[in-house]
Amino acid sequence: MTLNRKAIEVLNVSKKFGSVPAVKDISFSLDRGEILGFLGPNGAGKTTTMRLLTGFLVPDRGEILIDGINIRKNPIKTKNMLGYLPEHVPLYGEMRVSEYLDFRSCVKIKNKKLSRERISEVCKICDIEPVFKRLIRNLSKGYRQRVGLADAILSDPPVLILDEPTTGLDPNQLRQTRNLIKNLRKRHAVLISTHILSEVEAICDRALIINEGRIAANVSLDKNEKVFLECENISDGTMKNIQNLSEVTDIRRVLENSLEIYTKNNVDSRRDIFEAVVKSGAEILCMKHTKDSLEDLFMEITSKQKTQ
Questions:
Q1: How many Cβ atoms sit within 10 Å of the Cβ of residue 55?
Q2: Whole-angstrom Cα distance, residue 201 to residue 207?
Q3: What is the DSSP-derived secondary structure letter of residue 190?
Q4: 26 DSSP β-pair partners
């Protein structure tokens, strides 16, 4: 990858099927070493966006760049820079894992020596060495997912796109796959499409929420700390004192006597808020430090879209 370029850039992309718009002027980017969660309700345009990113569909308008290279102008080159794990991994059940990866390496890697080295490397990364000689049809769902992931990273692509990578896994497989994906960020930029909000919170740096064909929010998952404050005699002076604190990023009045105060990540600002409120003459009844769940944010965003 070129140092000063984004791993993925989507610039004002739109796509229609007939007269029905699927995505409308969407723009976002993915940095190197970043894991981006891609969320949206059914019919929001998530699958269409994934197909546009992987080159299965061509946008009606706008541009998609992989490391600064235009997908439309250089489709083969950009596809070679992507590793893709679909939701339902299309593996050949009659093949052994070793045979399947050898077959896939012949498609993706021209140098035979490098091919053998990469097969050995991805088997270690994805922890599929114990099943290397087994038939794929006899593998558990977790191992089949890992074989699919090994295939996706076989050519060491700079960008990985994973569609529902943990669906159907048991708790042990889920934890193993999460740790595996986290480790992939060392060499790849990763985009994960999923319906599982807790999965995004556990793995991702950011969450991109699409709804009704548009990007509804680009949420940093490390900037949603907040303090819930309940007190009597909240005045303009109280609000001003809190807003003047350097660690406070936003303040919202929930009820007449209740505030939600958003602060910088990993900063416990309760002492400063306490002093600011007391100086204003208000009386504190309750104060607690919490963190928004992604589910709360998702529901708030998508419900707003429905009512507009």
A1: 17
A2: 8
A3: E
A4: 13
Residue 59's CB: how many other CB atoms inside 10 A?
A: 21
Tokens of 229: 């404050």
Q: What whole-number distance in Å separates Cα of residue 176 and Cα of residue 49? A: 28
Q: Are 56 and 31 contacting, i.e. CB atoms less than 8 angstroms apart?
A: no
Domains of the chain: 8-220 (3.40.50.300), 225-291 (3.30.70.100)
Q: Please report where in the chains the tokens 């049809």 appear, as a residue.
A: 137
Q: What percent of the chain has pLDDT over 90?
A: 60
269-291 per-position pLDDT tens digit:
889 999 999 999 999 999 988 76
- Has this prediction a pTM greater than 0.90? no
How do residues 103-122 score in pLDDT, each as one tens digit? 999 999 988 899 999 999 99
298 three-state secondary structure: helix
Helix (H) or strand (E) holding 24: strand 20-30
Of 68, 69, 72, 50, the residue nearest 60 (C-alpha): 72
